[in-house]
Design brief:
By secondary structure, the protein is an alpha/beta fold. The chain has helices spanning about 15-25, 35-45, 55-60, 90-100, 105-120, 130-135, 150-160, 170-185, 205-220; strands at about 5-10, 30, 65-70, 75-80, 80-85, 125, 140-145, 195-200. Helix content is about 50%, strand content about 15%. The structure holds cytidine-5'-monophosphate. It is an enzyme of class 2 (transferase).
């Protein structure tokens, strides 16, 4: 049987950075489910689908083919066969993903993909509903969070390093809006699973968080 680790938490808490490193330490596959929601959102953006109309999104859902490939342990996201791994990182795609991920048609489609993958492989999977919905029986669940200020500053630095122009106040507002939408949607809202361990990374280094989660995983293997 495969061993699965679930990591959930709000935008910018450092889930992907941490999960990638823990995966390397343990020899697990890192699955970034946000990237899958982003790929669906990119399709919706590119095709000018009205994201406010559930029926318009549902009408194209079947046509959207999202797949993951792993090259040297790195996740590649394919949208209808095209590698969109870089393009989905744009802020507008992330914001669109948080709008379109409220729809059942979008969630259903990705849920089965995620569960199939976790059944086959040892995975550390990050997202919003992994511990509560996708992998309810995962032996280790982490709820990783940090203050809004910390998360906004980290995102700001990340974007600056990539040479993208950005505004800290705007990022903070986007993060707050995204948190609100993710936590208040009807289906699979972002929430800490009852049996998840809370890790607040505001005053922790990346290394400290990685060590903590790796130790917890080893105790359960
Ligand atoms: O984590 P990331 O910022 O890439 O996720 C983009 C958006 O996708 C989130 O704001 C959230 O609305 C959605 N998402 C989700 N469920 C997941 C992962 C991401 O609804 N498991």
């Amino acid at each position: 049987m495969s061993m699965n680790i679930a990591i959930d938490g709000p935008a910018g808490a450092g889930k992907s950075t941490i999960a990638k490193r823990v995966a390397k330490e343990l020899g697990f596959i890192y699955v970034d489910t946000g990237a899958m929601y982003r790929a669906m959102a990119l399709y919706i953006l590119r095709h000018g689908v009205n994201e406010k109309e559930e029926s318009a999104v549902a009408a194209v859902c079947d046509r959207i083919d999202v797949a993951l490939r792993y090259v040297d342990g790195n996740q590649m996201v394919l949208l209808c066969g095209e590698d969109v791994s870089t393009e989905i990182r744009k802020e507008e795609v992330g914001n669109m993903a948080s709008v379109t991920s409220v729809y059942p048609c979008v969630r259903q489609k990705l849920l089965s993909l995620q569960q199939d993958l976790a059944a086959r492989e040892d995975v550390i999977m990050d997202g919003r509903d992994i511990g509560t919905c996708v992998l309810p029986d995962a032996p280790l669940k982490i709820y990783l969070t940090a203050s809004v200020e910390t998360r906004a500053k980290r995102r700001y630095q990340e974007l600056q390093e990539k040479g993208q122009t950005c505004d800290l106040t705007e990022i903070m507002k986007d993060i707050e809006d995204r948190d609100y939408r993710d936590m208040h949607r009807e289906i699979s809202p972002l929430a800490q699973a009852e049996d998840a361990i809370l890790v607040d990374s505001s005053d922790m280094t990346i290394e400290e968080v990685v060590a903590k989660i790796t130790d917890l995983a080893k105790e359960r293997m």
